[in-house]
Structures are given as structure tokens and as C-alpha cells.
Amino acid sequence: MTDRTDTVTTNGQTGAPLWLLAELTYRCPLQCSYCSNPLDFAAVKEELDTAEWIDTLTQARAMGAVQLGFSGGEPLVRRDLETLVAEARRLGFYSNLITSGLGLDESRIEALREAGLDHIQISLQASDPDVAAAVAGSRKAYGKKLAMARAVKAAGYPMVLNVVLHRHNIDQLDQIIALCDELGADAVELANCQMYGWAQLNREGLLPSREQLEVAEATTARWRERLAERDRDMRLLFVVPDYYNDRPKACMGGWGSIFMTVAPDGAVLPCHSARMLPMRFPTVRERPLREIWYQSEAFNRYRGDAWMLEPCRSCDERHRDVGGCRCQAYLLTGDPAATDPVCDLSPDHHLVEAARREAERDTRSAGELTPRNAHESRVFCRS
Ligand code: SF4
Ligand code: FES
């Protein structure tokens, strides 16, 4: 297919990308069964080098990007992280490190602070070391994460924790929030697992039942009240899994609208999951970032609303949710242009309802999980 050469979408002028997610590497010491990296991550060998990343950051900033996330895999695996952070600061980005905490120590936190890193977010798997080990595939990780959460705060950063919730840990939410409180967290994202990458492969073992979800929401509400009574400023953000909504989210604020991911090998994507879609995404080694964002067929394909199928095409809500998530539509139906089956107007909504029904089975049999690993790494498609 040939590329469009203009910068105009069916909805008018394409705006600048405001967010850049720099996935520096797919390498990671952990093996989380809900990892959002692609199933064939091990096939990506040639990471961008330091000079290529600096060039990419420079191009993105010149296009207007202001928010920068350093992510992975585990971005601390890259020994040039401090160099990239310093460059991000020089360019004027607000930078955030999204990390497991493994590979961090006090001296590295200090080096990152001196380089100008603005924000650090550490992930926790559970409050129970055994559950944490089972989910992350590491016994040592739990203690290390707690120590690094404290060290980040001691270095003057707010302590921002991210806990991915799923069938195996959601019943311990009370203890998880208590642990975050005890650690002195300033903000906690209680993010129910969304079904992409390895999480989609492990969906049966991860999707909580509706009852589990309702109890967790009530627990969060109770904790909010308790924290307010104590005048304790610890923000709790509870993110419901898409599968329990009846309308989809406007994923990434719309395809190619404000968000851009650069994968470890330089592939430029409209979201972190898109590389498993049946389309080709150009890399920064092949074309300038500006050209990819404004002119590539991949970025223009789902901009505006001309691509939409029914029922989205004639739906009054299409500009609010842009038909939902292209990756979710593909993973569930095999067609990335389909209405996101999360929507109860979608002819495929029964697929989401079936997954919810399946999750109603006895929660004591939580289900087997396949840990993220290079051996089983493969191209994955449900269709
Ligand atoms: Fe949104 Fe499409 Fe559902 Fe309408 S039919 S609410 S546009 S996903
Ligand atoms: Fe890719 Fe939603 S995650 S479009």
C-alpha cells in the first residue's frame, strides 16, 4: 500500500505527538505473566544504540513531544540510561522512568537524579512474597522492590507505585494497600490487568471474577476514607479492566493522535501493543520520525473515522471513544478495524461476555500462568 503524502486526516489536521514512550529494550530480569511486551519479543535483537536514541528523542522534541516515558522490558538494563535521561533534560522533556526497580541502587538513583530525571514509577506484584515470586518469576525481586521504593523516596522523588491487579492478587488488595501505606507511598496505581501481549495469552488465569472486582473497588473506597480521616495524602487510582466495561476507552486518545511508542529496534508504533497487528510499522532507521507520524500508511490507517465499520460508522459516540482499541479488536476478532468487542453495541460483544462468564469459575482454582519467556516467544494471533 502506498503512503499518503499529506498530513490531513479525515477529521482535519493531524496534531503533534505529545507523548513519547521510549521502550529502550525488551530485556528484563523478570518474567511477569501479564507483560505487555509482544509474545515474539525475543525476535527483536538489534536495539537502537545511544546515538540513535538521542537522534530519536531530538526529532520527537522538535515535533512537539513534551512527555517522555523510559520503559521496556526493564530500561535499567541499558547502561546508557543516564546519558539518555541527561539528553532528555537538555531537550526539555518531562521524563518518567517506568521500572521494576531491579537494577537500581542508591548510587544509580543519585546518577539519574543528577542527569535530570523528573519522576520514577516502581511496579509491585503483590503484598505476599510467594504470590509476587509466582507472578514475576523471581524470589529476590520482592525485597529489592521494597528497598528501592524507599530509596527513591529518600532521594527526594515522590513514591509512585504501580500494582497490576489480577485473579491471583486482587483478593489481597487490602494488604497491598496497607503495604503501600507502610512504605510511605504518595500515589498508587491499582491497574487491573488489560489483556495484551502475555496477559492475553494468560487471560484465563488472570481475569478476575466480577465479584472479586466489586470487592476490590469497595476495598479501595474504604481505604480512601481511612486515608482521608488520617489526613494521609496517598492517592489511589483504581483502573477497571476493559472486559468489565460496556463502552470502550478511546485508546491512546485515538490512533496516531497524541501518543507514539518507539520500540527497542526503532519501530514506531501508535501504542505499545500494535506491533502484533497485521501491518508494517516503519522504523526510525528507515525514515524520519516526522514522516512516519504524518505520512506513513500505518499511522494514517485508523485516524479520523472514514475507516470505521458499522456499528461505529453511524454511532453518535464515535468521536468520544474512536471505536475503542484497535489491538483489542484484533486480538478478539482478527480484524483491527472491527468495533472493539468491549462495546455492548458490537456484534462481537459476546466474546467479552464469554470471558466474563469464564472468570466466574471458582476463584480458588486461579489457573495456570505461562511466564514471559524467550522459548515460548512467538507470533500470536487468536484469529
Ligand atoms: Fe463507540 Fe463504536 Fe460502540 Fe459506538 S458502536 S459506542 S462508536 S465502540
Ligand atoms: Fe493498541 Fe489500544 S492498545 S490501539
Automatic annotation (TrEMBL):
UniProt function note: Catalyzes the cross-linking of a glutamate residue and a tyrosine residue in the PqqA protein as part of the biosynthesis of pyrroloquinoline quinone (PQQ).
Residues reported in the UniProt entry to bind [4Fe-4S] cluster: 28, 32, 35
Enzyme Commission number, as recorded: 1.21.98.4
Region described as Disordered: 357-383
Keywords (A to Z) from UniProt: 4Fe-4S, Iron, Iron-sulfur, Metal-binding, Oxidoreductase, PQQ biosynthesis, S-adenosyl-L-methionine
Keyword RNA-binding assigned: no
Pfam families noted in UniProt: Radical_SAM, SPASM
Domain of life assignment: Bacteria
Cofactor binding summary note: Binds 1 [4Fe-4S] cluster. The cluster is coordinated with 3 cysteines and an exchangeable S-adenosyl-L-methionine.
Subunit field text: Interacts with PqqD. The interaction is necessary for activity of PqqE.
Top class in the EC scheme: oxidoreductase
Name of the gene this protein is made from: pqqE
GO biological process per UniProt: molybdopterin cofactor biosynthetic process; pyrroloquinoline quinone biosynthetic process
Pathway: Cofactor biosynthesis; pyrroloquinoline quinone biosynthesis
Biased composition (Basic and acidic residues): 373-383
Cofactor(s) this protein requires: [4Fe-4S] cluster
Domain spans labelled Radical SAM core: 14-230
Catalytic activity: [PQQ precursor protein] + S-adenosyl-L-methionine = E-Y cross-linked-[PQQ precursor protein] + 5'-deoxyadenosine + L-methionine + H(+)
The protein's name: PqqA peptide cyclase
Family statement drawn from the similarity comment of this UniProt entry: Belongs to the radical SAM superfamily. PqqE family.
A molecular-function term among this protein's GO annotations: iron ion binding
PROSITE patterns: MOAA_NIFB_PQQE, RADICAL_SAM
Entry keyword Signal: no
